[in-house]
Amino acid sequence: MREKTPVKPKTFDTMQEEKFLRAIAISDQGWRPDPEKIKVQKAIPIDVRLRREGIYHFEETIHQQPKEWLKKTFGPGREYPVNVSKLIKNIIWQARNKIVKNEQPPLKGLIRSFWYSHIKPALARCDSLSQDTDQYSQMIKMFVRLVEYCDFLRYKDFGFVDENQHDRKIGINNHIIFFAEKAGHYPLLEEIAQSTDVTILSLGGQPSLLSAEYFVDEIKAQSIDVRKSFYTFSLVDYDTSGWIIRDAFLNDLKFFGLKHIQHQDLILPKIFTAEEIELNKFPLRNPKEMEAKNKKWLKESGGINGELYGLEADAVPVPRISQLFIPKIKDLIGSTEDIRKGRALKDLTQALEKYILARLRNE
User: Fold this and answer.
1) How far, in Å, are 38, 169, 196, 256 from residue 259 at the CA level?
2) In this model, does residue 292 exceed pLDDT 80?
3) Which of 260, 239, 111, 230 is nearest to 181 (CA)?
4) Which of 134, 234, 301, 313 has the smallest number of Cβ neighbours within 10 A?
5) At the topology level of CATH, where does 165-332 sit?
6) β-pair type (261-265, 230-235)
7) Looking at 103-155, which runs of residues are DSSP E strands?
8) Between 339 and 293, whose confidence is greater?
């Protein structure tokens, strides 16, 4: 048996490069639209917006049509026989309408399953599947555009499964949301939630618009008033990319209904000693596509002594994070007694639900 080649662990430079590329993608208007542009779009009648996006009604099931039909209807494109973006958008819109009208069942799978079932085969059939371009990512951007920028649909319309559903927990102190950029910080969030019962959430490296929608839906399902004030605290890297990821997530929450958010960053130079800063600071990449974003971040944050340097959230000793966070929420949470009562009520509610379900099954 041939031995497997060991997987090399990602280096700091590799992880920074991946996050850097994600930040560029997120800050692109096709990925995360500017909130002001969303407002302008919403004021335009939906039929006009659909036409502007090149989306039309088709009797034929688009993703099942033969090559020539696809080329004639969606071609020619600049790089491929079809306009890939327009084809993807029309397939998404048609599938959504069929499911909403009960003409086909919900997908009940990951969004990646939609790529394999609807998008990839259609692109391959019309000779427009690329070996060099990440067209799955292009599909994700089209979903974001149709959900957030155009406000045409929601992910729940398709019945998608949220792969990040286990990376969050709504606490009794649900008005306080402590979120981390990296999945590796979730165990720490869980530990903090044990004593504070705040809501915790991990972004897994980048914000998912689908996860934000389902997260807010989960809040609403628990009869939590989304009109009240929410206090968010972030555990993200102190650099341009980290702040882009943070802002994208906060804007997603606002888009889905949490309008009144007051935010605080935990990772700032002031929580480090001068020696720790010198040991852990790193220069930020500053290619042409990031120059304006880095300049903006430097103006807002001050960088490190006015220079374009950042700090990793992982550079903070773990006990210090709890020491920073808990005093900040002291005046925002109820007493220990209130938390105990809240937990007891929650446990009682869950027990009653299980009892009722058991009775219904036996009847």
Assistant:
1) 14, 20, 24, 8
2) yes
3) 239
4) 134
5) Dna Topoisomerase Vi A Subunit; Chain: A, domain 2 (3.40.1360)
6) parallel
7) none
8) 293
